[in-house]
Amino acid sequence: MNKKILIVAALLMVVCVGGAFAWAIGIQGGGGVGGNGGAAITFKLDNVPLVFAADFYARSNYFTFGITGDYWFIEDTIVDTGIGPFGWFLGGGVGVAFRFWDNDSYNKDDHGGFGIRVAGRLPIGLNMMIAAGPVEIEPYIQAVPQIGMWMIDHFGLYWDVDFNAGLRFHF
To answer: Smallest Cα–Cα separation from 97: which of 4, 168, 162, 11?
Structure first.
């Protein structure tokens, strides 16, 4: 059910914003140090350096759904490869995640729970733009150090570094 809502929300964003801006949509996956990784649908505006993602991951004892928004302060070309520019980016952003877990996942008090995580993010990565007819293809890799706070049911500061690889299609 949650996956269907995620897909519908992403498609609505594309349809509503598509007429006003050049845009890209794609998928990404990854893992993390101190984090959990997972799969995501990404959405990027070309005229403004904003990148959004809706991600999710599930394990045997919990499920997490999150949304992120990043602003790329720097997006620069390192070299033009002949098939497209190879570059790097650095940005800042925020993320919010909602986690649901079952008995004994975090606490020994024999009940499930719900948590909200809010984080500041610092994405840094490499990307390339490859022209493929009317569409440009953007493969990318990124590391995203994050610092944030868990709230509701258990509280605490945390940090992690996510590593992602993805592919976006620019229309």
So the answer is: 162
Q: What's the rounded Cα separation, in Å, for the pair 26 and 19? A: 18
Q: Are 26 and 171 in contact (CB under 8 A)?
A: no
Candidate from 5-14, 68-77, 88-97 with smallest mean pLDDT? 5-14
Q: What is the mean pLDDT of residues 18-27?
A: 73
- Rounded CA-CA distance 120/129 in Å is 27
